[in-house]
Amino acid sequence: AQSVTQPDIHITVSEGASLELRCNYSYGATPYLFWYVQSPGQGLQLLLKYFSGDTLVQGIKGFEAEFKRSQSSFNLRKPSVHWSDAAEYFCAVVLGSGGGADGLTFGKGTHLIIQP
Amino acid sequence: KAGVTQTPRYLIKTRGQQVTLSCSPISGHRSVSWYQQTPGQGLQFLFEYFSETQRNKGNFPGRFSGRQFSNSRSEMNVSTLELGDSALYLCASSLSGGRNGYTFGSGTRLTVV
After folding, report:
1. What would the mean pLDDT of B53-71 be, rounded to a whole number?
2. Residues of A in contact with B64 (CB under 8 A)
3. Tens of pLDDT along B23-39?
């Protein structure tokens, strides 16, 4: 079965500094990969997704992610964080069958704290 | 266009009772999936429905069930509630799942006392 690992439970970054959140997946073929963000008490908002093609994916709110097949990674980056980026970030994978019957498998999440 | 709507937002139930949660997907979306979020277990897949048929189910006991109606609206039911069922239940809709991606609702916060 596929799995997703987010090694960092908490990350603290100063406002204006760059950010990288790590995500590793375990799956034989190329999966469909997603990053979601969740503010306290809210649902999940899709930041970006990767299916195929260009390995550098641009998302909303200035985020980007790079798919690296050799490292089974899909790390999320932002060049300069804002205080409003403080939230929980989830990496997720779905089997690449296209049929969509398997739902999303999520990592445990990374809690991002922004220091002023 | 309207997003995914989940009702109610908050719910308090007593152990042993049953509960029904509702989800209205984005117009045109035929896939609805449900997730349970708890601090200990994180986000876990419950089940997915497409065109009124359950396509897949996560590793949850039979007390958790769901259904989808012809208008794609979905309900999930939890019978014989346990304290451990306290969680945020999230619904996600998609055109057909998979590579189409999923749009989530704001969730229903269930507290079992």
Report:
1. 94
2. none
3. 999 999 999 999 999 99
